[in-house]
């Protein structure tokens, strides 16, 4: 089922800010049930050009080629599973919610991600990549929704996201939470001919001062709970392994930034 829509304009974007009534309701109703189960959107494998959207029927997800919303929070996340991917969803042996300090769940040891041997290039059993998967989480608040969706960016989309923030936003005095962002997919090929999907980020418009104030409670609340969202899903190694010295991969075409 297709749910493709034209780009949402800032004027059409319906902000539904979170409030104390909602946070209290979440706290009460989820008491003893663990962390908040954010709907998750994954970047498709094999060069796919459509996102799958979680819905009421998990066997028949809707799809869209464009995601539009306000990025209310984003942060690095590292995760390490030993051995090869076996198709199961299990907790990683070590994970980090900020990309800086990891927790070994077996020993309780805290590890410095910058010096961890599993987070060095060449530690992967395949190619020159890392044994530890470096990703990034984006919390995207879409029109008319109270809670954002959680988008897990693979390593191959990190450069595009970094360039978008640095060149299109920060250098122009903007924060991710003060603009409307669209995310599309493009098909790339590695130097080895492996097809994969890469995200393309575009600013759809600036939020009004009133909208920026409206979204602040959601930004603050998401930042307070993001570190409690565990890494529970392992994905197969589909990204090209020919990483350069900066941690990015060589593709067959120039990155459009």
Question: What do these coordinates show?
Answer:
- The chain is an alpha+beta fold.
- The chain has a domain at 20-76 and 137-228.
- Helices cover 15% and strands 27% of the residues.
- It has helices at 20-29, 158-169, 209-225; strands at 40-42, 51-53, 62-64, 67-80, 94-96, 101-104, 110-112, 133-141, 149-153, 179-189, 195-206.
- The strands form 2 sheets. Strands 1, 4, 5, 6, 7, 8, 9, 10 and 11 form a 9-stranded mixed beta sheet that branches. It has a two-stranded antiparallel ribbon with strand order 2-3.
- The longest helix is centred in the C-terminal third of the chain and has 17 residues, at 209-225.
- It starts with 19 loop residues before the first helix and ends in a 32-residue tail after the last helix.
- Mean pLDDT is 81; it is low at 1-7 and 241-257.
Compact summary:
The chain has 257 residues and is of the alpha+beta class.
Overall mean pLDDT stands at: 81
Q: Give the uncertain stretches in residue-range form.
A: 1-7, 241-257
The count of strands amounts to: 11
Radius of gyration, in angstroms, nearest whole number? 19 Å
- Termini Cα gap: 32 Å
Please tally the helical runs, counting DSSP H or I stretches of 4 or more residues.
3
Helical content class? 10-25%
Q: Which sheet architecture does the biggest sheet show? A: 9 strands, mixed
Class by alpha and beta content: alpha+beta
| N-to-C SSE string, H for helix and E for strand | HEEEEEEEEEHEEH
Beta-strand content estimate: 25-35%
General form: globular
């Amino acid at each position: 089922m297709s749910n493709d829509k034209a780009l949402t304009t800032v004027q059409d974007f319906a902000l539904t800010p979170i409030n104390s009534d909602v946070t209290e309701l979440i706290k009460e109703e989820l008491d003893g049930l663990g962390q908040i189960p954010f709907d998750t959107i994954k970047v498709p494998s094999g060069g796919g050009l459509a996102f799958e959207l979680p819905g009421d029927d998990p066997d028949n997800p809707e799809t869209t080629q464009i995601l539009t919303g306000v990025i209310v929070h984003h942060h690095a996340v590292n995760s390490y599973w030993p051995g090869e991917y076996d198709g199961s969803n299990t907790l990683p042996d070590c994970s980090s919610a900020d990309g800086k300090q990891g927790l070994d769940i077996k020993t309780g040891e805290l590890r410095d991600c910058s010096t961890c041997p599993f987070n060095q290039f060449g530690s992967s059993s395949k190619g020159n990549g890392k044994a530890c998967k470096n990703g990034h989480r984006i919390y995207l608040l879409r029109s008319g929704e109270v809670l954002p969706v959680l988008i897990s960016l693979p390593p191959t989309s990190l450069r595009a996201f970094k360039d978008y923030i640095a060149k299109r936003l920060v250098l122009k005095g903007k924060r991710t939470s003060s603009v409307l962002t669209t995310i599309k997919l493009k098909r790339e090929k590695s130097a080895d001919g492996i097809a994969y999907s890469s995200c393309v980020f575009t600013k759809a418009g600036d939020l009004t001062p009133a909208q920026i104030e409206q979204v602040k409670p959601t930004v603050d609340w998401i930042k307070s709970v993001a570190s409690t969202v565990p890494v529970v899903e392992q994905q197969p190694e589909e990204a090209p392994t020919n990483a350069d010295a900066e941690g990015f991969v060589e593709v067959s075409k120039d990155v459009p930034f």
